[in-house]
Amino acid sequence: MTDTQLRRLILKRGVRPVAMWLMLVTIVIVWATATDRSVGAFLDQWPGQVIAVIGAAAVVALFGGWLLQRDSWMHHGMLWAAGAWAGVGVTLAVERVSVVSMLIAFCWAGLAAGSWWLEQDGRGRW
To answer: Per residue in 30-46, pLDDT tens?
Structure first.
């Protein structure tokens, strides 16, 4: 068990609450962009579809990493989620549709990147 996991187990696996919520919120943006329900027009076009693919890869890596107990998958999922959320933020910044949504997207990107960094701390990296 790492310092980022709860002591309680689900299906005999440690739970990382930040990674779990990151996965869930990324599922929302994947769903919104894949079904043309997102803010602005650009996220409903090809930029949104690219973001949806990256976000879906992040969700698969986060869930698969938890299910199969593979830390490297979790770490990749966190980075991919950071990329997906940064993509949402940049797309909203370019389109200038919703400043609040743009700032929230960048905050999620920062949370995802910070989660990855927290996981790397003490492992001889960074």
So the answer is: 999 989 888 889 999 99
What predicted TM-score, i.e. pTM, was given to this entire model?
Answer: 0.85
Output the six-digit token pair for 47: 């930029």
DSSP class of residue 97 equals S
Label residue 82 by pLDDT band (50, 70, 90).
very high
Q: Kindly list the distances between the CA atom of residue 64 and the CA atoms of 8, 19, 51, 68, 100, in Å, as whole numbers in the listed order.
A: 19, 12, 19, 6, 32
| CB half-sphere exposure, 69, CA atoms < 13 A | 8
Q: Answer yes or no: is 89 within a domain.
A: yes
Number of domains in the chain: 1
122's tokens: 């003490």
